[in-house]
């Protein structure tokens, strides 16, 4: 079935409700669906669990959701950097829960959810605080820790182009977490630069098949948001 074509970003995210778990694509600014995040901020949903590579930057995107206390928990691999002041403030105030996950484990936990895998053993994190409370096992003399899938109610993804069946192509490294997040969510919402008729995308270049895409919205790509100066 073809995905729903939304008229604008607010329409695309209107179905996201309080308490939802939301996967948000992007590696820093690359591939981050800024317009969808801004629309989510406007729609009013709160108590969100957000899964992202980091915990927001400066005063844009995910950082603003955290600033407005709309996020109750962040699952990420890289929460702190020089401009993560909104995360720092909320976390230190005890108003934001953090689950720290090594980056490779994060990607694989999301992929496992999309692939229907019940979990996997990995050596990453074994013998550290990140393995506390988790099942461990020694395999061929190497210690492993068991990691569970990360499933989500929604995914917000940025791609370069979609056809009317929802098949997606990405722009270079901007694809990062997008493909696995699309498969691991019940509702994948995708912003693209353009939507083209079926047949105008070479099937050999399709990265995310339309079967994983639920909503598509075309948003003209603007300049990458400038990062604010370090907060004093």
UniProtKB/TrEMBL annotation:
It comes from the Bacteria. PROSITE patterns: COA_TRANSF_1. PANTHER family: ACETATE COA-TRANSFERASE SUBUNIT ALPHA, KETOACID-COENZYME A TRANSFERASE. Belongs to the 3-oxoacid CoA-transferase subunit A family. Keywords: Transferase. It comes from Zhihengliuella salsuginis. This is 3-oxoadipate CoA-transferase subunit A. The keyword Translocase does not apply. InterPro entries: 3-oxoacid_CoA-transf_A (IPR012792), CoA_trans_fam_I (IPR004165), CoA_transf_BS (IPR004163), NagB/RpiA_transferase-like (IPR037171). SMART domains: CoA_trans (SM00882).
